[in-house]
Amino acid sequence: MLAGGVIEGAAGILVAIKPRIGGYVVAAWLCGIIVNLLLVPGYYDIALRDFGLALGAFALARLSPA
Prior knowledge:
This protein is 85% helix and 0% strand. With 66 residues, the protein is an all-alpha fold. Helix 1 (2-17) runs antiparallel to helix 2 and helix 2 runs antiparallel to helix 3 (44-63).
């Protein structure tokens, strides 16, 4: 859990500094979480929430200036 927190903190800083790259990093991280949640029965609602967050991260990466 500590390593995950460090990675998420670093991804957040990356989004603040370089949103085009950071958006894709965060979206990939969320896609990994979604796959993990879909392997465990009963967490589909959280996977759907993370899917929405991943779409938002993809949109941020696409809309950020070059």
